[in-house]
Design a protein that fits this description.
Bound molecules: 5-amino-5-deoxy-1-O-phosphono-D-mannitol
Shape: globular
Radius of gyration: 26 Å
CATH topology of the largest domain: Glutamine Phosphoribosylpyrophosphate, subunit 1, domain 1
CATH architecture of the largest domain: 4-Layer Sandwich
Length: 598
Amino acid sequence: MCGIIGAVAESAINPVLEGLGKLEYRGYDSSGISILSNNEIQTIKAQGKLNNLKQRLSMQPIEGDCCIGHTRWATHGKANVTNAHPHQCGQVSVVHNGIIENYLQLKQQLMQWGHHFNSSTDSEVIPHLINHYLAQQMSQEEAIEQAINQLKGSYALGVLINGASKNLYAIKQGSPLVISEGNNGAYMASDAMALGPDSGKIYYPKDNELIKLNTNEIKLCSGSANKKIHYINNKHCVKVISKGDYSSFMEKEIFEQVDLLKRLSVNNHTGEYSTINFKNLNKITIIACGTSYYAASVAKSWFEKYANILVEIDIASEYRYRSPIIIDNELVIFVSQSGETADTLAALRYAKNKNCQTLALVNVANSSIAREANFTFEIFAGPEIGVASTKAFTCQLAIFYKMAIEAAKQRAFIKNVEVKQLALNFMKLPYIMETVLQRCTDMKKIAKKLANYSNALFLGRGALTAIAQEGALKLKEISYIHAEAYAAGELKHGPIALLDEHMPVLVIAPKNTLTDKLLSNIQEAQARNAPLFIIGDSSIKQHISLQENEFFELPEIPESILPIISVIPMQLLALYTAQILGKNVDQPRNLAKSVTVE
Ligand code: M6R
């Protein structure tokens, strides 16, 4: 992942630091900048959060009109200052997002040529290679192109060269990159959201297009030298997003879900979904990673149950390497909040190569996945800042639910009156969600108890198994409590061996057709002394005695929308448990919001 940014403008450090703040979701192990100041490249780096770098810079202010910056998610080498970017060799400084797979061979070669390396990163070979070719009297453009010809892997680069002319170069292969021409400067970044207000016009370069930015112009160099850059409007030129009165972005995003779903339930995008001919589809395959994959899992149950469509789901990193069987009239859907997840993007390219019809479900319009799929539907969750995905998940589910309604209509698998009921349930959704959120203090009591354990087992049944999995993922991500989720029926096939007084079991047990089955699973856990936590219907309490810090009561919820509502208590539980344990819920350790490396 990592975020890169560059600016050629007066006081270029300001847009770079502001942009780094917006890119911190990509990694926060370390950060750094290089700036051309008084005909010299000055590089300042700091370990840890961006604030550490800002503090260093406040003690040592520097001015200059050409600057690059980086925020790191460590792949090669520990998260320390030496491994922080930019990496410099002579008059060349580079920020890199991606992975150079053949860096070891290149490093050995460069060392034989007398180069000395400081870091253990893969990225440091890049400035060394460029410097090597510059020393052979190549032009700046030629030296960069020669260098990148040697690289295997993925990269988006910002290259600052201190030469006769002051230039900043940008180039990418497989990793996201955006260029922007403003009224007061020229900019490059990993993500359009990182660009400041002076960036109304943007351009997404193609792989290996070398772009030169300087105070006079932005120019396509090399093979595409005579091509004009065709800019588009920057939809992401947004104001700074604040967390308002909430303790964290994650908390704000959890409570925002009611309004988002109100908007989605009144906005009639169904017309848009009717562009898909569900009637003729033989199969839908849904591909995603992490939380988005659990949304796919719930979607599968809806498409199958209400529209009788065969649905296969897969994790993107598996799909692209497993020779999937593709059939006629198959639609492959790619779900991604960021639209930049490397594995999902690679899986999309794989499916397109196999001539599949592809559809993207994304939160970030203009993202790589949105741009490359045949069709794109937005989920309209608005920028999600918390690394742990919450509102994007419920909005993904909402769009899938609407698509399933459209599919049910077209395929006439269920009666018209049932289709109408599904739509009615959807209208009720935000109001039921509001009731659940109003009970958040009950969840704080449960979190207080759960925070005493190091492990937890989450159980659900049917579509709610995916919600148990999503709940376990949320808890792991931000509280670092180890949690695993199972379809409750699987308990006795193995995980039951783990149960004793140290292994709490959390069960999602709302009133539905599977409640009785779940009751047996709950009793099996109780018989093994496992501490129980139930999120469910009050009728459960007639069978099992539970304290108030063990039970979260769900209101009556129509079965079709249960997955969308049941995830709310899981999100709250993870949030409060992590807060009780004093964790940083917005920026959990080792994670990044957008996973742009394989
Ligand atoms: O942007 P994407 O939806 O493609 O991201 C996929 C996963 O990386 C993401 O959902 C991750 O699992 C989140 N941290 C979950 O909270």
